[in-house]
Specification:
With about 120 residues, this protein is mainly β. The chain is built from no helices and eleven strands. The protein starts with a strand and ends with a strand.
Amino acid sequence: QIQLVESGGGSVQAGGSLRLSCTASGITRWTYISWFRQAPGKEREGVAAISITDTTYYADSVKGRFTISQDKAKNTVYLQMNSVIPEDTDMYYCAAESMWSPACRTDVADFGYWGQGTQVTVSS
């Protein structure tokens, strides 16, 4: 049973930075973790992913501004958000699953474990 706890959300002005953290427990060597975001009334979308082979993926909307990384010793995956824009305002979730997959995963259906979410609000 994987448990995920997100932190680091908050309010920031456009152009600023935030770092989200996702700390996991109950993971295995095959656990992969991704970040999603969702606005009210919209579908949850994959923002960034890191595979078990440390390859990364970014949605076009955040490429060049967001960076996903992991500290395996701390079982924590980070999402560094730089040059944020008002359109980045969303609830952010990390998600995890344990299965052999060398590819980055950003489909909601690929994940069985979700954190509680952390709100990010960007003001103009």
